[in-house]
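Supplementary Methods. Inverse-folding protocol.

Structures were first reduced to a C-alpha cell string of length 329. This string, shown here, constituted the complete conditioning input.
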C-alpha cells in the first residue's frame, strides 16, 4: 500500500509538471484579448505590420488581438510600457531596431528599459533594406564608380538622412567607415525634405527605404546604385547588394521589425507566438502585401532573434562611436 501511494504521488507530480507553463505550449493561450502595442503612429510601416499580425493571430488563435498605437519618444514610450507590463502574454510589442538597438545606446541616461534583459525576443518579423541613390548629375552609374569618385573628391560630397541616428544615417556611416570614405552628413527633419534636396541637387546621395525612393528612381529623378541588404531584393532584382562590392562583404544596414514580450513571460507562450508568426508568413496573401514594396518577411525563432539583437547592438555601437553619437570608451 505504501509503495502504491508513493507511485501515485510521483505520477501526479509528473502530470502537474507536464502541464505547467514551463512545459509544453499552453493549449489555452490566450484566454483573453491580447493587445499588440505598436511603438509608432498609425499609418506607418510598424502599425501596418502590427495590424497584419493582429488579423492573422485572431484567426490562428481564435481569440481577439487588437492593435494599440503608443507613439512618442521615437518608439521608447511604447517599448518602456510593454517592458513594465505583466509577463502573461496579454501585452506584446511590435517595434523596430531603432528602439531596441539604437536608442538605448544614444539615450541610455533617460531610457529605463534594457534591450537585452527587459524582454523575451519572440521573432524577427521582417527586414526593410535601403536603396543607395544619387542625384543623376553625379557622373557615376555603379557602386564601384561611386566609390572611386568619392575617393577622388574627398570631403566634397554630402549625403542626407531623415535625422541623426536614424537607419539611413547609420547606413551612410557604415559605408564611410568600412571604406574610409570622406563625405559629410546633413541631417534633415524628415525623409521628404531630404529627398527634395537630393532631387534638386543640393545634396549628392542618400540611403532611403525602397518603397519611399523607388518612385523617384522610376521617374528618372534619382539613380539607384545598390541595396543595403546582404542579398539582392526580389522587388528590384537587377540592383546589386552593397555586400557584393569587394571590401564590403557582409554589409547589412536596414530597418527591421520585431515581436517581443516582457521578460519572464512563459517560454511556452513565446514559442507559441513565434510558431504562429511563421504560420502567418506562409500565407501568400500576407507575403503579397509586403514583398512588392521591398520588405523581406523573416519569421525567425526566438533564439535567432535574440542573437540578431546582440549582434546588431555590437555592430551599431561601433558605427555610433565613429559618427560621434555616443561617447568613446
Amino acid at each position: 500500500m505504501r509503495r502504491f501511494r508513493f507511485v501515485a504521488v510521483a505520477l501526479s507530480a509528473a502530470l502537474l509538471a507536464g502541464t505547467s507553463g514551463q512545459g509544453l505550449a499552453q493549449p489555452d493561450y490566450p484566454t483573453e484579448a491580447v493587445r499588440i502595442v505598436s511603438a509608432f503612429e498609425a499609418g506607418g510601416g510598424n502599425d501596418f505590420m502590427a495590424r497584419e499580425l493582429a488579423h492573422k493571430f485572431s484567426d490562428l488563435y481564435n481569440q481577439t488581438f487588437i492593435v494599440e498605437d503608443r507613439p512618442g519618444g521615437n518608439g521608447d514610450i511604447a517599448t518602456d510600457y510593454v517592458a513594465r507590463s505583466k509577463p502573461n502574454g496579454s501585452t506584446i510589442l511590435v517595434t523596430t531596431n531603432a528602439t531596441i538597438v539604437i536608442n538605448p545606446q544614444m539615450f541610455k541616461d533617460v531610457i529605463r528599459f534594457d534591450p537585452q534583459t527587459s524582454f523575451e525576443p519572440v521573432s524577427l518579423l521582417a527586414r526593410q533594406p535601403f536603396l543607395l541613390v544619387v542625384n543623376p548629375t553625379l557622373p557615376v552609374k555603379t557602386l564601384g564608380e561611386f566609390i572611386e569618385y568619392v575617393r577622388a573628391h574627398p570631403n566634397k560630397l554630402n549625403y542626407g538622412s531623415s535625422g541623426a541616428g536614424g537607419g539611413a544615417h547609420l547606413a551612410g556611416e557604415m559605408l564611410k567607415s568600412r571604406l574610409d570614405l570622406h563625405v559629410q552628413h546633413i541631417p534633415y527633419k524628415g525623409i521628404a525634405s531630404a529627398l527634395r534636396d537630393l532631387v534638386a541637387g543640393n545634396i549628392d546621395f542618400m540611403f532611403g527605404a525602397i518603397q519611399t525612393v523607388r518612385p523617384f528612381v522610376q521617374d528618372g529623378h534619382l539613380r539607384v546604385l545598390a541595396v543595403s541588404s546582404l542579398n539582392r531584393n526580389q522587388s528590384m532584382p537587377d540592383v546589386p547588394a552593397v555586400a557584393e562590392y569587394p571590401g564590403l562583404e557582409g554589409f547589412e544596414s536596414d530597418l527591421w521589425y520585431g515581436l517581443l514580450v516582457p521578460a519572464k513571460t512563459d517560454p511556452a507562450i513565446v514559442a507559441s507566438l513565434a510558431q504562429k508568426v511563421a504560420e502567418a508568413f506562409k500565407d501568400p496573401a500576407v507575403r503579397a502585401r509586403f514583398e512588392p514594396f521591398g520588405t523581406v518577411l523573416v519569421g525567425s525563432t526566438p533564439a535567432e532573434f535574440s542573437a540578431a539583437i546582440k549582434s546588431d547592438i555590437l555592430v551599431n555601437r561601433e558605427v555610433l562611436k565613429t559618427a560621434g553619437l555616443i561617447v568613446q570608451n
